[in-house]
Design goal:
The complex is a heterodimer of chains A (about 250) and B (about 280). Helices cover about 45% and strands about 20% of the residues of chain A. Chain A has about 250 residues and is of the alpha/beta class. In chain A, strands 1, 2, 3, 4, 5, 6, 7 and 8 form an eight-stranded mixed beta sheet that branches. In chain A, α1 crosses α9, α4 packs parallel to α6 and α8 crosses α9. The N terminus of chain B is likely disordered. The relative contact order of chain B is 0.13. With about 280 residues, chain B is α/β, with parallel strands linked by helices. In chain B, α4 links the parallel β5 and β6. Helices cover about 35% and strands about 20% of the residues of chain B. The chains are: A alpha/beta (about 250), B alpha/beta (about 280). Chains A and B meet through α5, α6, α7, α8 and α12 of A and α4, α5, α6 and α7 of B. The structure holds zinc ion.
Chain lengths: ~250, ~280
């Protein structure tokens, strides 16, 4: 698959969305709503759950599957309130010593008038700062699209994993093509230039692992991923200096 | 939605001041259309109508501070991804701005107080942030942390530098980590937002300061206007993403005219107990 085919695969509506991961990997997930400031952003699903008996906080960007769901989820583009809800849940996780697991799937943070008025930039900025300093292990899995700052705002983690057909990019290939090549139809070329595939990210050392998509969406797939996540969280926990190492992880880029 | 009363935007403003033909020693104000002698708008490069012309990074260093001592200038951007046209763009940017990068960093004095400073250069690829810009600002915050200095930074940026792909995105997290460590040590960070501050810079260190000041009329936002119009199919309110708009929305502490900036910075530093060296 070339880079742009990967982009289209990552965006495909056939892929399992974040809720499928939450429902199949964890048990007794309890969703917690709202940023306690202004509203509850449907693009972010968050709550607490059990990972094989270990209490964890789960935060995800959900795109929705049906037309009605997609509208409710704003197509997986989070507003400032969504990032603030995520931060509230992360600080709660820190208080109770729960590891944080995030699932990222977004074309980017929402670009709207209200989002600007309520500080989309500020909300992302504060998340970056606070995640860098959070005193519990963080694992992020990019399951589809990793769209720029809107994805990074949930991916400042001790380990970042990508599904083999997920993409992670500073700008959409279409946006890059229209700005740099003055032609949005050159998205295919832009996708190649941006080096946005999981293999690229791994080769630059920007992620730790690529998740095999064999049997994607099946019980077997989720069970395999669940045990990998559990193992990894335990291994981060064993490292007393994980917060320092998280700083070093990003400091190296 | 908040409404603002602004002078109607005109063609000159849309095209930017660089496209306005005028004799060498004259400049046309994009806000009030007055033609001013370049010498008359000095020293602050502000029009009598209040418009703030863009300043180069180094002009700011000498306008508001003394003894600017540059650091980390050895860092130079490279075309790591072999991105089409990037090498040429870097060369052009260096020629146009007379700088090696989109940010200059170092220490400087203001009224006898030593501070760590950064100034972004909008003439260098629209002040975009790649590895080197992120590295210089990160090293500045780390230096300020180990020397217990306050940081004063001037932002001017179109956001992340897409020619460096994901590495440029990671700079947002890297710098944010350094800002947080500096902050955790009880040290002061003041940012001055200047025209334009957008994208990944807005979504990181521009919005992470203890005190956020802005120049009047500066464009400040996360998403670009065109992207928002395309996404929402709505007409944007007048004055949208201007400093005055951001102030009303609650994201800026104070808008400060350039002629008052040095005094304001000095007063803030004194109120934070920053000691004079002599
Ligand atoms: Zn004027």
């Amino acid at each position: 698959m070339n880079a742009y085919e990967k982009v289209r695969t990552a965006r495909s509506s056939d892929r399992p969305t974040a809720l499928a991961y939450i429902n199949n990997i964890f048990s007794s997930f309890i969703e917690f709503h709202g940023d306690r400031r202004a509203k509850d952003d449907g693009a972010i699903v968050s709550g607490i759950a059990s990972l094989n008996g270990m209490p964890v906080t789960v935060i995800a960007i959900e795109k929705g599957r049906t037309a009605a769901e997609r509208t409710m989820r704003n197509f997986g583009s989070a507003s400032p309130e969504g990032y603030r809800k995520a931060l509230r849940l992360m600080k709660q996780a820190e208080k109770f010593g729960r590891p944080v697991i995030t699932f990222v799937d977004t074309s980017g943070a929402f670009c709207g008038i209200e989002a600007e008025e309520r500080g989309e930039g500020e909300a992302i900025a504060v998340n970056l700062m606070e995640m860098m300093d959070l005193n519990v292990p963080i694992l992020s899995v990019l399951i589809g699209e990793g769209g720029s700052g809107g994805a990074l705002a949930l991916a400042v983690a001790d380990r970042v994993w990508m599904l083999e057909n997920a993409v992670y990019s500073v700008i959409s290939p279409e946006g890059c093509a229209s700005i740099l090549f003055k032609d949005s139809k050159k998205a295919k070329e832009a996708a190649e230039c941006l080096k946005l595939t999981a293999e690229d990210a791994l080769s630059f050392g920007l992620i730790e692992r690529i998740i095999d998509e064999n049997a994607l969406g099946t019980e077997e797939f989720f069970n395999r991923l669940a045990s990998e996540i559990e193992k990894e969280i335990l291994s981060i926990k064993e490292d007393r200096d994980y917060k320092e190492n998280r700083y070093r992880r990003f400091r190296a880029f | 939605m908040i409404n603002f009363n602004f002078k109607p935007e005109n063609e000159l403003e849309k095209e930017g001041i660089d496209n306005i033909p005028s004799p060498e020693d004259e400049i046309v104000c994009p806000n009030c259309h007055r033609t001013e002698k370049k010498d008359d708008i000095l020293p602050f490069k502000t029009c009598t109508c209040g418009h703030h012309f863009r300043l180069k990074a180094r002009e700011r260093a000498f306008l508001f501070f003394s003894d600017f001592s540059e650091m980390f200038q050895e860092e130079k951007s490279e075309d790591v991804l072999s991105f089409p046209g990037y090498k040429e763009k870097l060369e052009k940017a260096r020629a146009l701005s007379s700088e090696d990068e989109s940010v200059i960093t170092g220490t400087a004095m203001i009224d006898g107080m030593r501070v760590a400073v950064f100034f972004m250069e909008s003439l260098f690829m629209m002040g975009s942030m790649g590895h080197v810009a992120g590295e210089k600002i990160t090293r500045l915050f780390e230096f300020a942390l180990s020397n217990r200095l306050p940081v004063i930074g001037f932002t001017a940026s179109g956001g992340a530098r897409m020619q460096e792909g994901l590495i440029s995105l990671m700079q947002m997290a890297k710098v944010s980590g350094a800002v947080k460590r500096h902050s955790n040590a009880g040290l002061l960070y003041i940012v001055v937002l200047t025209d334009p501050t957008t994208g990944g810079v807005t979504a990181s260190f521009a919005m992470e300061a203890d005190i956020i000041l802005s120049e009047p009329g500066a464009l400040i936002g996360f998403a670009g206007k065109r992207v928002i119009e395309q996404t929402t199919k709505k007409e944007l309110p007048r004055g949208f993403q201007k400093a005055e708009f951001l102030l009303k929305c609650g994201f800026i502490d104070k808008i400060v005219h350039r002629k008052d900036l040095k005094y304001t910075l000095k007063e803030i530093l004194i109120l934070h107990g920053i000691n004079k060296e002599h």
